[in-house]
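Exercise 3.2. Students should predict the tertiary structure of the chain below and write it as structure tokens, then compare their answer with the key that follows.

Predict this chain's 3D structure.
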Amino acid sequence: MRRALVVEDDAHNAVLFRKLLEKRCGCEVTVTESADEILALVSGGKVDLVVMDVSLNNTRLHGHAVNGVELCQLIKADPRTARMPVILATAHAMRGDAEKLLAESGADDYIAKPIVDHEQFVARVRARLPEAA
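Answer key:
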């Protein structure tokens, strides 16, 4: 079974992502805001894809607040995890935001919140998930 990591600080969005990933993509899902847990799961090969919120209110690394862009940069900078597919999920949806955030973070894809088009979300996730073993 493929495994997805959801990094989301909004409970409603976390539930929606979990349901879509489990029911429509066949993933086992872990939801967390803990930077240490995120990095451990990714570097430990425990996930196949990350859905990452950009604005994280409660996430800290070494005592400092971090956001999804910074976490994605850490994932992409590590040769062991650089190929990990990361999809940014954010309410930053003004013209140019997607391009700016993708360039800044190194993420593989971007989807605007709120997620109203479930089919589009599922299609984008499936396009980034590795083939099932």
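Discussion points: The radius of gyration is 13 Å. The longest strand covers residues 2-7.
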